[in-house]
Design brief:
The radius of gyration is 19 Å and the shape is globular. The chain is built from twelve helices and 13 strands. With about 325 residues, it is α/β, with parallel strands linked by helices. Helix 1 links the parallel strand 1 and strand 2.
């Protein structure tokens, strides 16, 4: 297949590109490098076409999608605090960028589009494990814009007959997970702290649980979705388990320090994955113990990542508490 991966220099995107190349696909990566890192693709650079491209450049985007079979849309701005501080920027990237891509897919008769959605669309769920039919209740602009992108994808799939699937990822982790952003992904924070022999900053009492999903399982779900004949559907992608932060720190074998619990965050994330198991015959393979062993074997990657402390986290998350705390 001739494939496009938007955001292919990012964490999940680079792993997907790796997988596609290993299976013999022709891959073009579109990335504006706002969060993606070209180093994530250094080992593949002779096997791919890497183009610096913003999804709001409609003319360039339309040309890039000529004669393309599959499109994997992973490009997005992430992180909670920056989305609160600049919601317009997030709308431009995650919503306008998505509709521009959809227009190009339609114009070029793309045979499959896979959209990377976010479990943050559920907000603070009332049902665990959380099914796809659960109430949608985004708590901050990042979650809202990812949900709006998903709605656009489903609408264009229905009206303009673009065969599309949206996958709602739950807490993806693994090698090359993000190291930048305003106090973002937990493993990027923890591994840099461990490498610097600093205490891991545990939010609240650490009893909150998360559905940590290893990146290779996510990539497998993406690929299985692309190969399938199913279209215009939404699936959760999770590990099938919900693991406490305290257990994570135990596996990382590091000292900890507790910081204040954050508003608008669920105590639990836990995906109901019965639908994707049944309809796509997909299931996760990597346990949390196996996944963390892989992270520790590759811990040097986080050597240049920012090292967060309770003080710097407090400063970085002021807007989080200001805007998301109950009024």
């Amino acid at each position: 297949m001739n494939t496009i991966v938007t955001g292919g220099a990012g964490f999940i995107g680079s792993h997907l590109v790796e997988h596609l190349i290993s299976l013999g696909h022709k891959v073009t990566v579109l990335d504006n490098f706002s969060t993606g890192r070209s180093e994530n693709l250094d080992h593949l650079i002779k096997k791919i076409k890497l183009i610096e491209c913003d999804l709001n450049n409609e003319d360039k985007l339309n040309k890039m999608l000529e004669n393309v079979d599959w499109v994997f849309h992973l490009a997005a701005l992430a992180d909670i605090v920056p989305s609160i501080q600049d919601p317009q920027k997030y709308f431009n990237a995650n919503v306008s960028g998505t509709i521009n891509l959809l227009k190009a897919c339609s114009a070029n008769n793309v045979s499959k589009l896979i959209y990377s959605a976010s479990s943050s669309c559920y907000g603070i769920p009332s049902v665990y494990p959380t099914p796809e039919e659960a109430t949608i209740n985004p708590q901050y602009p990042y979650a809202l814009t990812k949900r709006m992108g998903e709605e656009l994808v489903m609408h264009w799939s229905h009206v303009y007959n673009i065969p599309a699937i949206s996958l709602r990822f739950f807490n993806v982790y693994g090698p090359r997970s993000r190291t930048s952003g305003t106090y973002g992904a937990v493993f990027g924070v923890f591994l840099a702290q461990k490498l610097a022999d600093q205490p891991l900053t545990v939010v609240g009492d650490g009893t909150q649980t998360r559905d940590f999903t290893f990146v290779s399982d996510v990539v497998d779900a993406i690929y299985v979705s692309a190969k399938s004949n199913i279209k215009n559907k939404i699936f959760n992608v999770g590990s099938g388990k919900s693991i406490s932060i305290n257990y994570i720190t135990k596996l990382l074998n590091a000292k900890t320090v507790n910081i204040p619990k954050r508003p608008a965050e669920p105590d639990v994330t836990f995906a109901d994955i019965s639908k994707i198991k049944s309809e796509l015959n997909w299931q996760p393979k990597v346990s949390i113990e196996e996944g963390i062993k892989v992270l520790l074997d590759n811990i040097e990657y986080w050597g240049n990542a920012p090292i967060w402390t309770p003080e710097t986290i407090s400063q970085a998350t002021k807007d989080w508490f200001h805007y998301l705390s109950e009024k």
